[in-house]
Design goal:
three-stranded mixed β-sheet, Rossmann fold, alpha/beta, seven-stranded parallel β-sheet, 345 residues
Length: 345
């Protein structure tokens, strides 16, 4: 019996030592590395760029808005960071390839690719159009795939690299009134997990990020369908309150910490962790709760109208909660000249 216990103890010691060595081997520092951030002109992408700059990275930022990119570049270069920017639409193959080619020409090979660019559509299923699903999938799922296809061969040939795919709690649990978003994010979670197993043999590490609600100030740029004013009034405060969301600064730190540690997946916020844990253990209970919650949300009202959040302001959103959201909107470049970039959501 004692011999068996000693053997078991030795085996466990070897296992833990191997795990520690493997974790050490996955350690990575982005200082001095070329870090590509999609959606880097505003919101979470901009904050990740700020955090990467603090850690000594050289930045390659792409987004659909030249105005936002110019503002982000001016800010980051003011901190002494090397920054390259390029207007890019990740829904388009050529645009994505050309952007990555531009960055490689200016900075050298991409060491870290962080996929953040995305769109969000809020509304009941009766108000949605096929185009809403297509746009979400093209941007939130195929967009990251296009970026990966533009960088992975170089990473594999060099035997190192990091790919970070920012998904969502909506990629683990289907949230009412977010069907296009959830469909695309569920797909990105599966792709990211599969990609990690495929690229591991080449020394390239893929990390899946699953954030809950974050105070990014992005609600004015989301699209609301059916009864936009009511949808916006219910949605906007949820990512502005400290007890329902995490700060964008904390989210950015956690994303880069997970990248440098080579983690398989990181869920950001205790609320998201609790929700995913509950769903894993009690799926019928959670689905029942969400079905009950859906009944409290506005119906389509016979309308398929679509509006951006900042076009859906009403008396319902004039409150102290809205003021908190407004502060985040300003700090994350979300309000730069709506008239000129109204389609860049």
């Amino acid at each position: 019996m004692k011999r068996t216990l000693r053997t078991l103890g030795l085996a466990l010691s070897v296992l833990f030592a191997a795990r520690a060595l493997l974790a050490r081997g996955r350690r990575y520092r982005i200082s001095g590395k070329n870090v590509l951030v999609t959606g880097g002109g505003r919101g979470l992408g901009l904050q990740v760029a700020r955090e990467a700059a603090k850690r000594g990275a050289r930045l390659a930022l792409c987004a659909r808005s030249e105005i936002e990119l110019a503002a982000a570049r001016a800010e980051l270069e003011g901190l002494g960071t090397v920054v390259e920017t390029r207007v890019c639409d990740v829904r388009d193959d050529a645009s994505t390839r050309h952007a990555v080619g531009h960055f490689v020409d200016r900075l050298g090979p991409i060491d870290v690719a962080i996929n953040i660019a995305g769109v969000i559509e809020v509304g009941p299923v009766d108000a949605l159009r096929m185009a809403d699903y297509e746009d979400a999938i093209q941007t939130n799922l195929l967009g990251p795939i296009r970026v990966v296809e533009a960088v992975r061969r170089s990473m594999c040939e060099r035997g190192h690299g990091r790919i970070v795919n920012v998904t969502s709690l909506g990629g683990k649990i289907a949230i009412p009134h977010l069907l296009p978003y959830c469909a695309s994010k569920f797909g990105l979670v599966g792709y990211s997990e599969g990609l990690r197993t495929e690229l591991a043999r080449y020394g390239v590490v893929v990390t899946t990020i699953v954030p809950g609600l974050m105070r990014t100030g992005s609600a004015p740029r989301a699209t609301f369908a059916g009864q936009p004013e009511k949808e916006y009034a219910m949605f906007a405060p949820s990512d502005a309150l400290p007890f329902t969301s995490v700060s964008v600064e904390r989210a950015a730190r956690e994303i880069l910490d997970a990248c440098e540690a080579g983690e398989t997946e990181r869920v950001i916020s205790w609320q998201a962790k609790a929700a995913i844990g509950m769903y894993a253990r009690f799926p019928r209970l959670v689905v029942g709760f969400l079905a009950a919650f859906a009944r409290l949300l506005p119906d389509a009202g016979g309308s398929t109208e679509h509006r951006l959040g900042h076009e859906s302001e009403s008396a319902l959103t004039q409150s102290p909660l809205d003021a908190l959201a407004h502060q985040a909107t300003i700090s994350q470049n979300e309000m730069i000249d709506y008239r000129r970039i109204a389609t860049d959501v």
